[in-house]
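sry for the spam today, last one i promise. C-alpha cells for design, 260 residues
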C-alpha cells in the first residue's frame, strides 16, 4: 500500500490557533482537527482507489463520513467504529485493512446541543444554528426521524466512470419512522473543491441495519450536537491517477447533482 503524503491545508491564522493557542505540537485527539483524505473534486473525477487504511482513520478520529476503495458504499464513523453502507442499504463493520479514497473524521467533543423542531427538513438546517460560517463543524443529530431519504453507491470497476454518472443509477432508500443518528460536517464555502460546502451528512439507524448518504429527512424528535473545529489536515494519494488529475475545473454543478 502506498503511503499518503501529509499536507496541511489551513490558513496561517488557523496554524497560529493550533500551535500557539491550543498548545498542540501535532495533529492528534487533543486538537480540534478535521483529518481528511484527498479532495471532493478528486472523487468527482473518479479517483476511487483507496490510499489510507481504516486503522489510520481510527487513529485520527472517532466520528466522520466518506467512502471506500472502488467507491464500495458509503462510510459512517460513529463512536470509533467504522461502518459500510452497501448499495442495498445493509450495513457491516469494516476491517482495519480496508482503504478509503475520500473521507473526513475528527475526535468529536460536543460544544453545543439543541433540540430540533419537529417537522424540520434537511434543507432547513441553517448555519445560523452553528455560530460561524468560517469554521468546520462536526455534526451529530440523534433521535427519531419521521422519514429519511438516503442513498448508497455500488462498487466500481476500472475504467472508473465519473461520480456524476455513477449516481444516475444510485439506489435510493426511503426510511420511515426510524430512530438513528445523522453524522457529518458543515464545511465553509472557501473549501469548495476540497470538501462539500455546507452540510454533508450520512445516516445510520439505531439497530445498525439501515443507512446511507442523506438526501433529505424530516425530524420527529431529535437533538443536534455540534463540535466547532479550528484545525484542518489533509493527506493526498501518492499515485499516478492523482498526480495527473486535472483539478483546475469548477465542479460545482456536478457536486450539486451528486450531493442532492
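last one done:
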Amino acid at each position: 500500500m502506498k503511503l499518503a503524503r501529509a499536507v496541511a491545508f489551513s490558513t496561517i491564522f488557523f496554524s497560529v490557533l493550533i500551535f500557539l493557542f491550543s498548545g498542540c505540537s501535532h495533529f492528534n485527539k487533543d486538537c480540534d482537527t478535521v483529518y481528511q483524505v484527498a479532495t471532493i473534486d478528486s472523487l468527482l473525477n473518479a479517483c476511487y482507489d483507496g490510499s489510507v487504511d481504516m486503522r489510520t482513520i481510527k487513529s485520527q478520529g472517532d466520528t466522520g463520513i466518506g467512502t471506500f476503495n472502488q467507491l464500495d458504499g458509503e462510510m459512517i464513523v460513529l463512536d470509533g467504529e467504522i461502518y459500510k453502507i452497501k448499495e442495498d442499504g445493509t450495513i457491516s463493520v469494516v476491517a482495519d485493512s480496508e482503504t478509503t479514497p475520500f473521507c473526513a473524521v475528527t475526535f468529536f467533543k460536543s460544544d453545543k446541543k439543541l433540540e430540533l423542531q419537529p417537522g424540520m427538513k434537511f434543507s432547513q438546517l441553517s448555519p445560523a444554528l452553528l455560530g460561524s460560517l468560517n469554521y468546520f463543524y462536526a455534526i451529530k443529530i440523534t433521535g427519531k426521524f419521521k422519514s429519511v431519504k438516503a442513498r448508497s453507491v455500488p462498487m466500481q470497476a476500472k475504467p472508473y466512470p465519473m461520480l456524476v454518472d455513477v449516481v444516475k443509477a444510485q439506489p435510493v432508500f426511503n426510511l420511515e419512522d426510524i430512530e438513528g443518528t445523522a453524522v457529518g460536517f458543515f464545511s465553509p464555502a472557501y473549501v469548495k473543491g476540497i470538501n462539500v460546502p455546507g452540510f454533508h451528512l450520512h445516516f445510520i439507524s439505531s439497530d445498525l441495519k439501515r443507512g446511507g448518504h442523506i438526501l433529505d429527512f424530516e425530524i420527529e424528535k431529535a437533538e443536534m450536537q455540534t463540535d466547532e473545529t479550528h484545525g484542518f489536515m489533509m493527506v493526498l494519494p501518492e499515485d499516478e491517477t492523482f498526480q495527473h488529475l486535472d483539478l483546475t475545473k469548477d465542479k460545482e454543478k456536478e457536486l450539486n447533482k451528486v450531493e442532492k
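The longest strand covers residues 211-229. ok im logging off now
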